[in-house]
């Protein structure tokens, strides 16, 4: 069968690496889907990491898909922002949103390579990372009960034990992640699993969550364990801090529930109108809510976006939290500029307007998400119509 990836994005066997084995392709399917019959649907296969126009106001923003791959794209978006604002020498004094909008294509490529290698290195326990690319030939002959997808069987694995080498290798092959037809999000996801290793992932997950994707309304979407793997390097299934040994009744649980064990470098906030109305909103722990850098992936009504601050000390100096600016991007084509919100936690406590019938106007979803971190904050959109 012909490879579904354009020839220009297929690597030469002379590059080296290790060919995928039948055992690994089966393990990849099981850890992703829970079985070997499922394959990625069209929505996933067409997903890759594409920036907006270089040298434009939103040149730092990835175009996000509507399907399940969006969650992965938005975590990488958060890491891109972290890299551009906080990981480059010499920009501390002149950190502005404007500096994000001056990116040329080479700057975009470097930021994407840094964000991807960041996640892989973290998943490999900061000791090693694996990058998977597609080669010309089938590495294996699949079993009869195994559904072929034309590229998983052609994977070549490249493993590195220095983070800088991972970044350079991804940068050299950045087209394999950012070009149309590259299956870039899937290749990154395979790289993430191989960097973590299937054995470690099985240890991370609990009996209730044995795989990383689940089927929702006909599309595969990311479980919390996959988000936590992207954010922290460990696929813990829950968002609270630490490990829960006892249930609400005080009785020991048959199996402990695994939460987040270490502070993430980019954070996570979660809010859902439906869960709030049912009283079942998960309480995100401080390991995710208070990350090392002031950049948060937000899951708002099951849709993913990113909030960030330009001020690195926002999370380490409580005086900075009296009044501060947050910036917001949702990766959708309809967004024409970065939204700027002023958050005031000091002067007056926020109260919902009583007369407003529309729940979205009464409790704007993004504002409610921000209040899961800064309770009671008053939020000013500075002239932008509230959206999320």
Keywords:
single chain, 388 residues, alpha+beta, six-stranded mixed beta sheet, globular
Set down the secondary structure blueprint.
Elements: E1 18-19, H1 22-33, H2 42-45, H3 70-86, H4 97-100, H5 105-123, E2 129-134, E3 155-160, H6 163-172, H7 175-178, H8 184-196, H9 198-204, E4 213-216, E5 219-222, H10 224-232, E6 243-246, E7 252-258, E8 267-271, H11 273-278, H12 286-289, E9 295-300, E10 303-308, E11 323-329, E12 339-344, H13 359-362, H14 365-371, E13 378-380
Parallel strand pairs: 8-9
Antiparallel strand pairs: 1-3, 2-3, 4-5, 6-7, 9-10, 10-11, 11-12, 12-13
Helix pairs in contact: 3-5, 5-6, 5-8, 5-10
Structure report:
With 388 residues, this protein is of the alpha+beta class. The chain has one domain (7-380). The protein contains 14 helices and 13 strands. The protein has helices at residues 22-33, 42-45, 70-86, 97-100, 105-123, 163-172, 175-178, 184-196, 198-204, 224-232, 273-278, 286-289, 359-362, 365-371, and strands at residues 18-19, 129-134, 155-160, 213-216, 219-222, 243-246, 252-258, 267-271, 295-300, 303-308, 323-329, 339-344, 378-380. The strands form 4 sheets. The chain has a 6-stranded mixed sheet. A 3-stranded antiparallel sheet has the order 1-3-2. Helix 5 packs across helix 6 (163-172).
């Amino acid at each position: 069968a012909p490879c579904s990836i354009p020839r220009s994005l297929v690597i030469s066997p002379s590059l080296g690496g290790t060919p995928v084995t039948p055992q690994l392709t089966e393990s990849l399917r099981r850890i992703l889907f829970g079985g070997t019959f499922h394959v990625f649907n069209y929505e996933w296969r067409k997903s890759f990491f594409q920036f907006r126009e270089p040298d434009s106001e939103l040149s730092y923003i990835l175009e996000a898909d509507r399907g399940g791959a969006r969650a992965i794209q938005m975590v990488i978006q958060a890491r891109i922002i972290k890299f551009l604002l906080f990981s480059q020498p010499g920009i501390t004094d002149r950190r502005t949103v404007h500096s994000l909008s001056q990116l040329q294509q080479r700057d975009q490529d470097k930021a994407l390579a840094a964000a991807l290698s960041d996640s892989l290195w973290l998943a490999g326990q900061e000791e090693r990372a694996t990058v998977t690319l597609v080669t010309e030939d089938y590495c294996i002959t699949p079993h009869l009960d195994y559904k072929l997808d034309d590229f998983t069987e052609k994977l070549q694995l490249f493993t590195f034990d220095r983070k800088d080498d991972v970044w350079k290798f991804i940068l050299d092959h950045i087209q394999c992640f950012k070009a149309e037809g590259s299956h870039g999000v899937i290749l990154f996801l395979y790289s993430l699993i191989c960097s973590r290793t299937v054995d470690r992932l099985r240890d991370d997950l609990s009996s209730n969550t044995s795989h990383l994707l689940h089927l929702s309304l006909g599309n595969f979407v990311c479980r919390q364990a996959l988000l936590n793997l992207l954010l922290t390097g460990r696929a813990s299934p829950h968002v609270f801090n630490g490990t829960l040994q006892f249930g609400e009744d005080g009785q020991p649980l048959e199996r402990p529930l695994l939460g987040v064990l270490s502070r993430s470098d980019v954070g996570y906030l979660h809010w859902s109108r439906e869960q709030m109305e049912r009283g079942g909103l998960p309480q995100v722990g401080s390991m995710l809510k208070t990350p090392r850098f002031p950049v948060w992936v937000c899951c708002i009504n099951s849709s993913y976006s990113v909030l960030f601050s330009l001020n690195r000390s926002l999370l380490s100096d409580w005086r900075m939290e009296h009044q501060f600016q947050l910036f917001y991007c949702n990766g959708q084509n309809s967004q024409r500029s970065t939204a700027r919100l002023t958050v005031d936690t000091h002067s007056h406590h926020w109260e919902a307007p009583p007369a407003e019938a529309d729940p979205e106007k009464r409790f704007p979803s993004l504002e409610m998400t921000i209040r899961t971190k800064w309770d009671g904050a008053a939020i000013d959109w500075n002239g932008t119509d509230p959206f999320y």
